[in-house]
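W.,

You were right to be curious about this one. When I first looked at the sequence I had no strong expectations either way, so I just let the prediction run and decided to look at it fresh. Below is the sequence, 620 residues in total, followed by the output.
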Amino acid sequence: MPNCEAFQDILVQVARIRQPILFWPRSFNMPCKPPAFSDRESITSAKRNLLSFGITKVSIRQGRLEIMATAYLFAFCLVTSGFSQTTWEPTAPQSQAMELVGEEVIRSHIRFLADDLLEGRGPGSRGDELTQLYISTEFESLGLKPAGLDGGWLQPVPLRGITSIPPKQIELVGAGETMTLKSHDEVILVSGRKDSHVSLKGAELVFVGFGIQAPEFEWDDFKDLDVRGKILVVMNNDPEDDPELFAGKKRLYYGRWDYKYAMAAKLGAAGALIIHTDDSAGYPFQVIQTGWTGEEFELAQDEGSRTNLKGWLTDKAAHSVFQWAGLDLDKLRATASQREFKPVPLGVKLSVEFDAVVREQKSANVLAKLEGSDPVLKDQHVIFMAHHDHLGLAAGRDASGDNIYNGAIDNASGTATMLAIARAIANSKISPKRSILFAAVAAEEQGLLGSKHFATYPTIPPGKLAAVVNIDGINFLGRTHDVNLVGNGKNTLDALVQNVTTWQGRTLVPELNPERGYYYRSDQFSLAKIGVPGVYLHGGVNIVGKPSGWGKEQLDAWIDKVYHQPSDEFDPNWNLSGAIEDARLLMLVGLLIADQPDLPQWLPGDEFEAARKAAISAVE
């Protein structure tokens, strides 16, 4: 643990040096007193600068600048990660490797992986097998060592595919009357079991607010209600009005849809219907329509608690159902934001029967290794990770006659970037102390299944995994002034990202849309659950040479019209100059992790800290 003098020195630097910095957690007690400043003017200036960094709990009292736990956490992270006023610069071998990350390499990989020939790289498909072969042969051509099972390149991922065939209309019954919802347009239902037939009769609908049980926040939306055999109607979010609860506007795992279904299964509910809104999901309902129809996948070995039914309601349909039941959904939403909320039965029942086609499928993670140079540290690994799958083929064609979800940006681009980084490191004079593992993982679009399988059956003990650098999508708009760090303020890797970003002459900014919970939506989350800290970036939005707001407008339009649609195709007109800069940043961060003396850690009190300690203890 750094001494108090080190903390105070860092805080003085932060207060007096005006540079972009991150937001940090609020609840952590440190024994050190904040530094004193010589005069009122310097105190006021220090407070103003700290406020500009997002350190908001600052006050001036009795001639001393008082800084709350947020600033102490910031100092802790910087001290333990080697922050200093001295500007970091890459070594000559790192600079050489950086120059080898070229646009033509990334662009060519995307062009192949997103081609119609691969038919959208759906799990278990011919395109999936071609993708695995392409990646493994690229690894082999770089002289990397296979790191899969039995000395091969692959870690097989056994899957179960379930294609639900719901009726065209869903009937609800209440007070002797019937209400009808249109499948696909208003409601989407899928089987929650591995059975070929789903049957529910007279299952009561109950509104359970956020559907959360969180003892650490003294929060329980269920209030001991027996929900067995019932259908839970739940909001797709977590409480956000109080910054001291559930991290305020920042989405936690409690707000994720997979948590909602898991809670319904744990409590024995017959099913769960999640109310979709564009704001709570971060994307329009058409993404649900493409992602939750056709064949759905799960890990074949998953045998935990299940519900009969999983589903989604449009916001408009949900309002109609509640109004038909004599309830005001908006008022209930407001009530659900309070601890005192109690579940509300709708007085409505659902009966439904449909068939499902169930079949065993398989995909694979593709794993390659560059062995480290240090005789001790080479047993530890830094992972560069990207998912190689997408959604495959649609059952029908869109207005243009297209039925292939090519997934060019999501995530042929991430896989291409990982391959470019692998090529640069392999062809340079770099000899990282820790080993580097390159992992192209499967079935991310189905619920992070490939990385979840890797985390459940790791080829390397979790305590020997130093960190993961995950790449999911790239910037296609051009160079940016900013870098968007997702999940900032959770671990000691942030300062390394800050160092490289500053050297690039760019600004590191906190997660731009914390309410969307992106940290829990990509593969670094699977590794976090076994204790491995991670770095995950989104492209910046302050585009060089463009007006303020232009970048955000372009990305919002992409999410509305392209995300998880057949239109996510390779485009030769992309401006990948910013993607190259981001790729070099990620490579340099990974190399810094590989050479630093200590393993990265989660910040004290983080949700994944205990898992990290247990993983390290298991290999000591």
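Here's what jumped out at me. The radius of gyration is 25 Å. And, maybe more interesting for your project: The domain at 92-157+365-598 is CATH 3.40.630.10 (Aminopeptidase).

Coffee later to discuss?

I.
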